[in-house]
């Protein structure tokens, strides 16, 4: 290549394989003039900055430090439902487990009893007391036949109980015997094996997770002092341990009961905290069981759960940082932006106000927000008492609280004007492992039949195994009528009062409430299903969600408010959930949740039909 000082003596022949490239080269050793980027007309650049509004601003500084004073009050009280009494809120347990867990009466099954009985036999055999196994199987038997019709029709459940009966003791019955001190007597343990059996039982209780007996006298001991001090009186016996409400391997509610409202098919509970000045009560009346968060709570001023003061003052001096997000417009004029996001290319119609607000925030007010990170304890309600910001000029400004109409992340009030100025941080699990539904009931309307239906798609068997009712009902369907001989003198048509529906379809009949004629409820009507073996059988359902039976076995009324079964329908599920807490503990519970359905149902129910024979 020639330079400008050299004379061009020849002309290169044009070619497609060679080309000429111009490259800037400096003849000086100093590179300062080249990197100065001198501008010939700086006034033009000042004019452009003035046109774009870069000179428009306030005489203010940027924040350099922020002093935050907050008071975090821990939630200490818990009330399941509107009518139950308030109890102490357990610590170290996710709130989902506290609220959603079912009692042992509905969560327990025979598989847990069989597995715990198997572990007892293993420990006894390891201790040299394996000869007690036949006695334990006879004394604490596992039923050989399922107690319900759905399980009796399931081959796997029947086979499981047939194998376990007579070979494994019932673990729950053996645990109750150990708690009441009857195990050694009922099992007829020889004196030579007493030490080995006691050691095996201790290991078994540890495997079940039985907590140690609390120290001190049992509850109500002072009420028994007159009998103790009487002449010739004996000391009252210690209460059973573990208590009757203890269930091994999974979590169940205590004496406070469950938060599930069966007529509304949702959870209803309240929590309370006290910050030393006032009590805060938050209620969740319509929690559907799908991941608890702060927006499920409403503030109820004037209510009380008798929470004691328990708070922590948090004072921090922090460094504010500008809020940033992916694709954020650059705040400097000469800075290159991310080409993957083009906020100017977002289209908005007349009704897209939310989209227009978002674009205006990104283009105009993006650099007006700062972030101050503040660590708070979980399971608390925090109120900001003061926020003092110091700018680059050393001016300190007290930032007031946002107006109620523009504040975010505040629990709404159950009454007008009852919004709480606190930040609720519930002690919820970050993630849970959910099993396949062990029970699923689909609720929907049938406009053609003028009914609502509760369709049992999956029910829980006696061993806890999910049973597919759709397939089971198909196998147990009433067979068709036998064909009529051709020479028989019978009509060609037959009259039917009503057509049949599958056995797992439970009808819900709308009707007024007794004390409120204007309130419509959907009541369960035992459908008379025809059978070939005898009288019609009343179909009431086999699921735990529809089984509202008292202790004496009497069938009580099942009535849903009409608004709880919308046109879109509902799906109510029961699933096992497993979560790990911050301290490493593992929590297992059986919970219920409600989801949106798949629309209306069509049962095919018709009345007064004439069909070909």
Q: What's the Cα radius of gyration?
A: 37 Å
Can you give the mean pLDDT? 83
Uncertain parts: none
- Broad structural category: alpha+beta
The biggest sheet amounts to:
11 strands, mixed
Range of strand content: 15-25%
Distance between the first and last residues' Cα? 105 Å
Shape: extended
Q: Give the helix tally.
A: 14
Quaternary organization = single chain
Share in helix = 10-25%
**Strand tally:** 26
Describe the structure.
This protein is of the alpha+beta class and 613 residues long. Among the domains are: 108-213, no CATH class; 324-368, no CATH class; 433-480 and 491-612, no CATH class. It has helices spanning 32-35, 42-51, 95-100, 104-107, 110-126, 133-139, 149-152, 155-164, 171-179, 183-186, 194-208, 225-229, 353-363, 469-475, and strands spanning 63-80, 87-88, 260-261, 266-274, 279-287, 298-299, 311-318, 321-322, 370-371, 380-391, 396-398, 412-413, 423-425, 433-434, 439-446, 451-460, 466-468, 493-498, 505-512, 520-524, 527-529, 537-539, 559-561, 570-580, 586-596, 607-612. Strands 1, 2, 3, 4, 5, 6, 7, 10, 11, 12 and 13 form an 11-stranded mixed β-sheet that branches. Helix 5 packs across helix 9 and helix 5 (110-126) packs across helix 11. The radius of gyration is 37 Å and the shape is extended.
Briefly, what is this?
With 613 residues, the chain is an alpha+beta fold. It contains 14 helices and 26 strands.
């Amino acid at each position: 290549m020639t330079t400008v000082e050299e004379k061009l003596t020849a002309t290169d022949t044009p070619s497609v394989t060679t080309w000429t490239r111009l490259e800037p080269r400096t003849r000086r050793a100093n590179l300062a003039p080249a990197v100065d980027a001198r501008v010939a007309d700086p006034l033009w650049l000042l004019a452009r900055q003035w046109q774009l509004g870069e000179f428009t601003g306030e005489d203010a500084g940027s924040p350099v430090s922020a002093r935050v004073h907050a008071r975090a009050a821990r939630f200490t009280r818990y009330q399941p439902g509107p009518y139950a009494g308030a109890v102490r809120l357990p610590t170290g347990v996710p709130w989902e487990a506290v609220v959603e867990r079912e009692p042992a009466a509905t969560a327990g099954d025979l598989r847990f009893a069989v597995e715990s009985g198997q572990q007892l036999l293993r420990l006894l055999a390891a201790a040299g007391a394996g000869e007690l196994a036949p006695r334990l199987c006879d004394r604490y038997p596992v039923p050989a036949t399922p107690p319900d019709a759905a399980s009796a029709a399931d081959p796997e459940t029947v086979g499981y109980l047939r194998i376990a009966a007579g070979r494994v003791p019932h673990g729950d019955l053996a645990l109750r015997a150990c708690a009441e001190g009857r195990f050694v007597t009922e099992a007829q343990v020889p004196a030579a094996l007493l030490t080995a059996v006691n050691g095996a039982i201790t290991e078994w209780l540890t495997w079940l997770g039985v907590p140690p007996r609390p120290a001190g006298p049992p509850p109500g001991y002072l009420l028994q002092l007159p009998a103790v001090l009487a002449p010739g009186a004996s000391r009252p016996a210690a209460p059973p341990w573990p208590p009757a409400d203890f269930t091994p391997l999974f979590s169940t509610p205590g004496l406070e009961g469950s938060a599930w409202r069966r007529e509304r098919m949702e959870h209803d509970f309240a929590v309370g905290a006290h910050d030393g000045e006032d009590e805060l009560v938050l209620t969740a009346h319509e929690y559907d069981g799908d991941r608890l968060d702060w927006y499920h709570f409403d503030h109820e001023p004037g209510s009380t759960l008798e929470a004691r003061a328990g708070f922590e003052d948090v004072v921090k001096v922090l460094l504010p940082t500008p809020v940033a997000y992916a694709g954020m417009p650059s705040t400097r004029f000469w800075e290159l932006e991310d080409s993957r996001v083009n906020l100017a290319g977002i289209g908005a119609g007349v009704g897209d106000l939310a989209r227009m607000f978002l674009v205006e925030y990104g283009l105009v007010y993006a650099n007006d927000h700062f972030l101050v990170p503040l660590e708070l304890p979980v399971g608390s309600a925090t109120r900001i008492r003061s926020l003092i910001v110091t700018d680059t000029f050393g001016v300190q400004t007290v930032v007031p609280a946002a107006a109620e109409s523009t504040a975010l992340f505040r629990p709404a009030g159950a009454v007008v004007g009852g919004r709480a100025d606190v930040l609720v941080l519930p002690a919820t699990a970050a993630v849970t492992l959910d099993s396949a539904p062990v029970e699923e009931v689909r609720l929907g309307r049938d406009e053609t039949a003028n009914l609502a239906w509760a369709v049992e798609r999956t029910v829980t068997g006696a061993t806890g195994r999910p049973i597919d009712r759709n397939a089971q009902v198909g196998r147990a369907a009433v067979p068709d009528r036998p064909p009529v001989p051709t020479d028989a003198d019978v009509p060609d048509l037959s009259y039917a009062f009503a057509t049949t529906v599958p056995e797992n379809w439970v009808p819900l009949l709308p009707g007024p409430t007794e004390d409120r004629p204007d309130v419509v409820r959907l009541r369960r009507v035992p459908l008379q299903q025809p059978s070939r073996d005898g009288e019609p059988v009343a179909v009431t359902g086999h699921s735990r969600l529809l089984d509202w039976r008292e202790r004496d076995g009497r069938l009580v009324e099942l009535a849903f408010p009409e608004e709880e079964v919308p046109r879109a329908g509902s799906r109510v599920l029961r699933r096992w959930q497993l979560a790990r807490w911050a301290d490493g503990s593992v929590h297992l519970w059986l919970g219920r949740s409600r989801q949106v359905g798949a629309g209306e149902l069509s049962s095919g129910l018709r009345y007064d039909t004439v069909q070909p024979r």
